[in-house]
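Changelog-adjacent note: as of this version, every example in the card shows the full chain rather than a window. The one below runs 92 residues end to end.
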Amino acid sequence: MTNPDSKTASRDGLVVAALGGLVAATVLLGALLPGHPAQGPASAAEPSGDVACLEWSDGCRVCQRLPEGPACSLPGIACTPEVFRCLRRAGG
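Full-length structure tokens:
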């Protein structure tokens, strides 16, 4: 007669091994697949034509001009955006 505890332990080991394999495959895919270029709402938020502006805000989020492109914070859930205003300019 088989011991029920050994059957449960065997099945638990199989579940743990399957979950470990799934996690490893997910991490491997994330490391090997190419990422998206930083485009979208952050680049659309850039004030048009004002290249001297290094940091700006619409009252909901703050954006900075970086070498890789603009980077913005996330807006609050109940924020109503206003017109962008420059917070910091190049050279002063």
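Structural remarks: Residues 1-35 form one domain.
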